[in-house]
Amino acid sequence: MRNPARDIPHYLRIFQTYLGGRMYLIFGLTLIAAISEGVGILMLLPLLQTLGAPAPGADTAPAAEAPTGITAWLQDLLTSLGLQDATVAVLLIITVAFIAKGALTFSALGYNAYLRGQLLRELKGRLFVHYSRMGYSYYASRDTGHFINLINEQITRALQAFDNLSRLGGQFINAAIYLGLAFLVAWRFGLMALVVGVVLLLLFRWLSAYVRQLSRKTAAENGHLAKQLIQTLHAFKYLTATGQTPQVRGAVTASIGRLTGYQIRTGIASAFTQAVREPIAVVFIMGIVLVQLVFLQQPLAPILVSILLFYRGMNAMLGMQGSWQSTLEQIGSMELVDDEFATQRQHQEPDGPRAIGPLSQGIRLKDLSFSYDPQLGDVLTGIDLEIPVRHSVAFVGESGAGKSTLVDLLTLMLKPRQGQVLIDGVPGPEIQLASWRKQIGYVSQETVVFDDSVANNICLWAGDPHKDQLLMERIREAARQAHIAHFVDTLPDGYHTLVGDRGLRLSGGQRQRLFIARELFRQPKLLILDEATSALDSESERAIQQSIDALKGHITVVIIAHRLSTIRNVDRVYVFDHGRLVEQGGYEELRDAEQSRFGKLIAMQAL
Predict the structure, then answer these.
(1) pLDDT tens for residues 369-413?
(2) Number of domains into which the chain is organized
(3) Range of the domain at 289
(4) Which residues pair with 453 in a beta bridge?
(5) What pLDDT band is residue 289 in, cutting at 50, 70 and 90?
(6) Cα Rg for the chain, rounded, in angstroms?
(7) Residues 6+ apart with CB under 8 A from 217
(8) pLDDT digits (tens, 9 = 90+) for 267-277
(9) Contact criterion met (CB below 8 Å) for 348 and 133
(10) Tell me, what CATH number does 247's domain have?
């Protein structure tokens, strides 16, 4: 099993991608703080010499002995400063050193909190931008739970991984400083401490690999659970009405059970690391002190200082294991997020260089063929048609004929396998997508309604309807055109009434008319109606039809309809069958033509 510690540089590079080199300032502050504390601890040596700390089994104070090593160097330094007998001055130096250590530690932790905030903004902001620009084909290949899990749950856990990795770096610096100083004070003692620390980290290596494996499983299972929950909540009405909730509950419960198992095992591993840290440190310290005093006959003063340094160093090394383990508990989330960024970069929607103006000539589909999967063949083949500006056309055909796919090609969400989509003579790949799509109004069978007020659903937060009277008048006009104004006026708060999640407080027809009102509010140059009146009653359908007919000659309208009575007044009808354009012409022309497929469709509906 690969040692996870080898991946530390890789994880640092991932975080550096989003934060830059500034993240290493944390380690610089931690280093200075550790040095400050180390200086304070080292000053205990001359202080103990000054106070005459007795050595065990000796009648004389170690101060009478000639100091050696770091002790002699410190005493010479104090002598050169005229402080060799100034106990108060030494105490003051120790105090200032620890105050400086506290201030630097606060700076490091505060800066760490700032960087976590920056990382949250970078990850969530960048990922949302990627999601808003991803290709429709990739979006259709993944479930909603995948995206929500990544941008909410996994990024939050990735922040925790960064926090733990930062703490790991700080503890490594502390361990290096403390053990290095312990080595200077009593090199035999320091060498023993270093060996013991390395051995302990090696012993914990298997636990680190196990925790990282659990982290990856947890991240993947969170995505699976999010998908199950979203699908269940969206289908709540159907599942409850048909008594099928228990069947779905089994899959959700199983996923929760797996997550629980991973969490318990991760928690046990963390508990083990925390529980053994202090006992191991104390046992090894006592063992090394015994060797120093009994077998090596070392003086007590350096040993006392070394004990303090070693204890801090050993705690830092064991703390490294705890922080590394905590990092690995969350690192699966960081890996998942980083992989998603890489995937998104490969599936970003290509944008053209040319910004086009308002539709002025029309749309042309030239020898167009399209396939979702080459192995399954084309769903559209050899389509040649034209939609002149300010004309209305209808796409007609049985389910599976390719009508909705054709609409996705018109909006440039899908790219043809061969042939071209020309907007005012400009090929689709050359068009700056935003300049085209802002001209499109699109009403589909699946209503898009937000959990907000009626007014905000119509204007889509284009301003504040409470304060902007001109905006409010445009909202009312769109509602009148969609024949929903009379209903809105009966609501308790009128246009400021909340409609609930996905418009739950509205009927199906009311949701559809609200949807239509939004698209009419935008005053599009191209209005696409994909079964837009399918959820409406006959009276509402007639009213909406009148609104659509009133747009004739003013904007370009594309209608997909199964109820052929709704397309009587269009300029041209295109009839599709199994992905091919089989007929085109006026409504009455096709209806009355001999052996006309359109005529047969009308006859089937008994029109």
Answers:
(1) 999 888 888 899 999 999 999 999 999 988 888 888 999 899 998
(2) 1
(3) 4-346
(4) 498
(5) low
(6) 37
(7) 258, 262, 332
(8) 787 777 666 66
(9) yes
(10) 1.20.1560.10
